[in-house]
Hints:
By secondary structure, this protein is α+β, with helices and mostly antiparallel strands. Helices cover 29% and strands 16% of the residues.
Amino acid sequence: MKAFFLLVVLSLALVFAGCQTEDKVNLEAECSTDADCAAAGCSGQVCTTAEEAPMIITTCEYREEYSCLEQTNCGCVEGQCSWAQTEDYLSCLENLKS
């Protein structure tokens, strides 16, 4: 009886040890560091993965707001490649509206 009880306790300990929480990894994340992202497109206006950047084809037009991209970086933000919403970048965009 003691052996059975000990076996049950050990089995439960193994089960619960395997149920420890692990750091959650976003399997849908396209990036984990800024180096995983790159600017693409004819005017460098698209922020995408470094892997996809060479294959991105856009029309070659220039819009005034593209000049504001000099005030920011294409990088990894919460698992997605996007332009960092820096104060300088947002201010530049706002100035173009006026």
